[in-house]
Amino acid sequence: MPDHLHLLVAQGEPTVTLGHWVKALKAVVGSRTVRWQAGYFDHTLRSRESEAEKWEYIYLNPVRAGLAARPEDWPFSGEIVYEEAGPKKLRDGPTM
């Protein structure tokens, strides 16, 4: 919500660890505009069902927090999709 970030990230290159990825994210976002907490919580999704459950949890967070009446009213949600061919695309809301 306003004080934290949820991400679902698919591992593309097996040589890139989650720690390296988070370090790169922090470098891109910058440390002057964001105060990073010391650690992060990671969870490996083992099935499509688990992925759908986590996505729904994240999607409904603004409603549970009282920040939006409906998930689609929260302006800070969406999905960036990288495909093998073509540019990245931003999709709003869950895709399941």
Give the proportion of residues in helices. Answer: 25-40%
Shape: globular
Q: Whole-number radius of gyration? A: 15 Å
Order of helices and strands: HHEE
Number of helices: 2
Largest beta-sheet characterization: 2 strands, antiparallel
The total of beta strands comes to 2
Going across the biggest sheet, name each strand in turn.
1-2
Low-confidence stretches: none
Question: What is the compact description of this entry?
Answer:
By secondary structure, the protein is mainly alpha-helical. It has helices at residues 18-29, 48-64; strands spanning 79-81, 89-91.
What does this structure look like?
The structure is a single chain. The longest helix is centred in the middle third of the chain and has 17 residues, at 48-64. It is globular and about 40 Å long. The protein has one domain (18-91). The chain has helices at 18-29, 48-64; strands spanning 79-81, 89-91. It is built from two helices and two strands, in the order ααββ. A hairpin with a 7-residue loop joins strand 1 (79-81) and strand 2. Strands 1-2 form a two-stranded antiparallel sheet. By secondary structure, the protein is mainly alpha-helical.
Topology:
Elements: H1 18-29, H2 48-64, E1 79-81, E2 89-91
Antiparallel strand pairs: 1-2
List keywords for this structure.
mainly alpha, single chain, 6% strand, two-stranded antiparallel sheet
